[in-house]
Amino acid sequence: MIIAVDGPTASGKGTISKALAAHFGLPHLDTGLLYRAVGRQVALNGGDPDDTVDALAATAFPDERLADQELRTEQTGGFASRVSVHPAVRHALFERQRAFAEQPGGAVLDGRDIGTVIAPEADVKLFVTASVQSRAMRRWLEMQDRELDLELREIEADIAARDKRDIERKDAPLRAAPDAFVLDTSDLGKEAAIAAAIEAVEQAKGR
Ligand code: DC
Questions:
Q1: Which of 45, 95, 97, 109 is most buried per CB count within 10 Å?
Q2: Which domains does the chain have, with CATH numbers?
Q3: Is pLDDT at 60 greater than 90 in this prediction?
Protein backbone atom coordinates (compact mmCIF):
# COMPACT_ATOMS: atom_id res chain seq x y z
CA MET A 1 0.00 0.00 0.00
CA ILE A 2 1.32 3.43 -0.98
CA ILE A 3 0.13 6.33 1.19
CA ALA A 4 0.76 9.82 -0.22
CA VAL A 5 0.60 12.70 2.25
CA ASP A 6 0.84 16.22 0.85
CA GLY A 7 0.31 19.64 2.32
CA PRO A 8 1.87 22.98 3.17
CA THR A 9 4.61 23.63 5.69
CA ALA A 10 3.76 23.10 9.40
CA SER A 11 0.39 21.54 8.58
CA GLY A 12 1.18 18.47 10.67
CA LYS A 13 1.82 16.23 7.66
CA GLY A 14 5.20 15.06 9.00
CA THR A 15 3.79 13.99 12.36
CA ILE A 16 0.81 12.35 10.68
CA SER A 17 2.99 10.52 8.14
CA LYS A 18 5.27 9.11 10.83
CA ALA A 19 2.26 7.95 12.84
CA LEU A 20 0.67 6.34 9.75
CA ALA A 21 3.94 4.56 8.93
CA ALA A 22 4.17 3.18 12.48
CA HIS A 23 0.49 2.19 12.56
CA PHE A 24 0.49 0.39 9.20
CA GLY A 25 4.07 -0.94 9.49
CA LEU A 26 5.36 0.90 6.41
CA PRO A 27 8.66 2.69 5.71
CA HIS A 28 8.42 6.49 5.58
CA LEU A 29 10.17 9.11 3.44
CA ASP A 30 10.01 12.81 4.25
CA THR A 31 10.65 14.16 0.75
CA GLY A 32 10.97 17.75 2.04
CA LEU A 33 14.25 16.61 3.57
CA LEU A 34 15.67 15.99 0.07
CA TYR A 35 14.81 19.54 -1.00
CA ARG A 36 16.18 20.85 2.30
CA ALA A 37 19.45 18.97 1.67
CA VAL A 38 19.69 20.64 -1.76
CA GLY A 39 18.96 24.04 -0.20
CA ARG A 40 21.60 23.50 2.47
CA GLN A 41 24.13 22.26 -0.08
CA VAL A 42 23.63 25.38 -2.22
CA ALA A 43 24.39 27.51 0.84
CA LEU A 44 27.51 25.45 1.65
CA ASN A 45 28.64 25.74 -1.98
CA GLY A 46 28.22 29.51 -1.79
CA GLY A 47 25.67 29.24 -4.62
CA ASP A 48 22.43 31.03 -5.41
CA PRO A 49 19.23 28.99 -4.77
CA ASP A 50 17.42 30.92 -7.50
CA ASP A 51 20.02 29.94 -10.11
CA THR A 52 19.18 26.68 -11.91
CA VAL A 53 22.81 25.67 -12.46
CA ASP A 54 23.77 26.24 -8.81
CA ALA A 55 20.64 24.48 -7.55
CA LEU A 56 21.11 21.51 -9.87
CA ALA A 57 24.77 21.13 -8.83
CA ALA A 58 23.61 20.94 -5.20
CA THR A 59 21.41 17.88 -5.91
CA ALA A 60 24.69 15.90 -5.77
CA PHE A 61 24.76 16.37 -1.98
CA PRO A 62 26.54 13.65 0.02
CA ASP A 63 24.27 11.23 1.96
CA GLU A 64 25.45 12.53 5.31
CA ARG A 65 23.85 15.88 4.42
CA LEU A 66 20.48 14.27 5.25
CA ALA A 67 21.56 14.10 8.91
CA ASP A 68 22.70 17.76 9.02
CA GLN A 69 20.95 19.53 11.95
CA GLU A 70 20.79 22.69 9.87
CA LEU A 71 18.18 21.07 7.63
CA ARG A 72 15.51 21.88 10.21
CA THR A 73 16.07 25.62 10.32
CA GLU A 74 13.68 28.18 8.84
CA GLN A 75 16.51 29.51 6.69
CA THR A 76 17.13 26.12 5.09
CA GLY A 77 13.34 25.72 4.64
CA GLY A 78 13.30 28.96 2.67
CA PHE A 79 16.25 27.81 0.53
CA ALA A 80 14.50 24.46 -0.03
CA SER A 81 11.39 26.21 -1.28
CA ARG A 82 13.51 28.29 -3.67
CA VAL A 83 15.50 25.39 -5.15
CA SER A 84 12.31 23.34 -5.51
CA VAL A 85 11.02 25.77 -8.14
CA HIS A 86 13.57 24.54 -10.74
CA PRO A 87 12.24 21.67 -12.91
CA ALA A 88 15.82 20.33 -13.24
CA VAL A 89 16.04 19.94 -9.45
CA ARG A 90 12.66 18.19 -9.26
CA HIS A 91 13.72 15.89 -12.10
CA ALA A 92 17.02 15.05 -10.36
CA LEU A 93 15.18 14.04 -7.17
CA PHE A 94 12.39 12.12 -8.92
CA GLU A 95 13.96 8.64 -9.24
CA ARG A 96 14.98 8.46 -5.61
CA GLN A 97 11.41 9.18 -4.48
CA ARG A 98 9.89 6.90 -7.10
CA ALA A 99 12.12 3.98 -6.04
CA PHE A 100 11.06 4.49 -2.43
CA ALA A 101 7.38 4.49 -3.41
CA GLU A 102 7.76 1.35 -5.53
CA GLN A 103 9.41 -0.84 -2.89
CA PRO A 104 7.64 -4.14 -2.21
CA GLY A 105 4.96 -3.79 0.47
CA GLY A 106 4.53 -0.09 -0.10
CA ALA A 107 5.50 3.06 1.75
CA VAL A 108 4.36 6.37 3.18
CA LEU A 109 5.78 9.47 1.47
CA ASP A 110 5.08 13.03 2.48
CA GLY A 111 5.72 16.21 0.55
CA ARG A 112 3.97 18.56 -1.85
CA ASP A 113 3.53 16.52 -5.06
CA ILE A 114 3.41 12.91 -3.93
CA GLY A 115 -0.24 12.28 -4.87
CA THR A 116 0.01 14.34 -8.06
CA VAL A 117 3.46 13.57 -9.55
CA ILE A 118 5.59 11.08 -7.60
CA ALA A 119 2.95 8.43 -6.91
CA PRO A 120 -0.29 9.37 -8.67
CA GLU A 121 -1.32 5.71 -8.38
CA ALA A 122 -1.10 5.81 -4.54
CA ASP A 123 -3.75 3.71 -2.80
CA VAL A 124 -4.50 6.50 -0.34
CA LYS A 125 -3.93 10.24 -0.74
CA LEU A 126 -4.22 12.69 2.12
CA PHE A 127 -3.91 16.44 1.81
CA VAL A 128 -3.15 17.82 5.25
CA THR A 129 -3.71 21.53 5.68
CA ALA A 130 -4.38 24.19 8.35
CA SER A 131 -4.83 27.95 8.49
CA VAL A 132 -1.70 30.12 8.23
CA GLN A 133 -2.38 31.40 11.77
CA SER A 134 -2.52 27.99 13.40
CA ARG A 135 0.55 26.78 11.48
CA ALA A 136 2.49 29.88 12.53
CA MET A 137 1.46 29.35 16.15
CA ARG A 138 2.71 25.73 16.03
CA ARG A 139 6.03 26.82 14.55
CA TRP A 140 6.34 29.54 17.17
CA LEU A 141 5.71 27.09 20.02
CA GLU A 142 8.28 24.68 18.54
CA MET A 143 10.78 27.53 18.41
CA GLN A 144 10.11 28.49 22.01
CA ASP A 145 10.96 24.89 22.94
CA ARG A 146 14.24 25.23 21.07
CA GLU A 147 14.78 28.62 22.73
CA LEU A 148 14.70 30.44 19.42
CA ASP A 149 13.17 33.86 19.61
CA LEU A 150 11.17 34.90 16.55
CA GLU A 151 8.10 37.12 16.30
CA LEU A 152 4.85 35.30 15.55
CA ARG A 153 4.11 37.84 12.84
CA GLU A 154 7.48 37.17 11.18
CA ILE A 155 6.75 33.43 11.12
CA GLU A 156 3.29 34.04 9.67
CA ALA A 157 4.76 36.18 6.88
CA ASP A 158 7.41 33.54 6.18
CA ILE A 159 4.82 30.74 5.99
CA ALA A 160 2.57 32.80 3.71
CA ALA A 161 5.52 33.56 1.39
CA ARG A 162 6.53 29.89 1.32
CA ASP A 163 2.93 28.81 0.54
CA LYS A 164 2.75 31.35 -2.29
CA ARG A 165 5.98 30.10 -3.86
CA ASP A 166 5.00 26.42 -3.50
CA ILE A 167 1.49 27.02 -4.89
CA GLU A 168 2.43 29.32 -7.76
CA ARG A 169 5.42 27.46 -9.18
CA LYS A 170 4.80 26.04 -12.65
CA ASP A 171 6.28 22.59 -12.12
CA ALA A 172 4.41 20.33 -9.66
CA PRO A 173 2.73 23.10 -7.65
CA LEU A 174 1.36 22.39 -4.19
CA ARG A 175 -2.25 21.33 -4.62
CA ALA A 176 -4.53 18.55 -3.48
CA ALA A 177 -4.93 15.69 -5.96
CA PRO A 178 -8.58 15.53 -7.08
CA ASP A 179 -8.92 12.16 -5.33
CA ALA A 180 -7.23 13.25 -2.08
CA PHE A 181 -8.94 13.28 1.31
CA VAL A 182 -8.48 16.80 2.70
CA LEU A 183 -7.73 16.88 6.42
CA ASP A 184 -7.81 20.34 8.04
CA THR A 185 -5.87 20.20 11.30
CA SER A 186 -6.44 23.86 12.32
CA ASP A 187 -8.63 22.88 15.27
CA LEU A 188 -7.22 19.44 15.95
CA GLY A 189 -4.65 18.44 18.53
CA LYS A 190 -1.91 15.99 17.57
CA GLU A 191 -3.70 12.82 18.71
CA ALA A 192 -7.02 13.83 17.11
CA ALA A 193 -5.28 14.62 13.81
CA ILE A 194 -3.52 11.24 13.81
CA ALA A 195 -6.77 9.41 14.63
CA ALA A 196 -8.56 11.24 11.79
CA ALA A 197 -5.77 10.30 9.35
CA ILE A 198 -5.83 6.62 10.36
CA GLU A 199 -9.61 6.61 9.94
CA ALA A 200 -9.29 8.21 6.47
CA VAL A 201 -6.74 5.56 5.40
CA GLU A 202 -8.96 2.73 6.71
CA GLN A 203 -11.89 4.12 4.76
CA ALA A 204 -9.89 4.62 1.57
CA LYS A 205 -8.51 1.05 1.83
CA GLY A 206 -12.03 -0.28 2.10
CA ARG A 207 -13.19 1.42 -1.11
O1 DC B 1 8.04 19.93 3.85
P2 DC B 1 9.22 20.87 4.03
O3 DC B 1 8.84 22.18 4.71
O4 DC B 1 10.38 20.22 4.68
O5 DC B 1 9.66 21.23 2.52
C6 DC B 1 10.62 22.22 2.25
C7 DC B 1 10.42 22.74 0.83
O8 DC B 1 10.71 21.71 -0.12
C9 DC B 1 9.01 23.22 0.49
O10 DC B 1 8.85 24.59 0.74
C11 DC B 1 8.86 22.90 -0.97
C12 DC B 1 9.83 21.79 -1.23
N13 DC B 1 9.22 20.48 -1.45
C14 DC B 1 8.73 20.23 -2.71
O15 DC B 1 8.76 21.11 -3.57
N16 DC B 1 8.22 18.99 -3.01
C17 DC B 1 8.17 18.04 -2.08
N18 DC B 1 7.67 16.83 -2.40
C19 DC B 1 8.63 18.29 -0.77
C20 DC B 1 9.14 19.54 -0.48
A1: 109
A2: 2-200 (3.40.50.300)
A3: yes
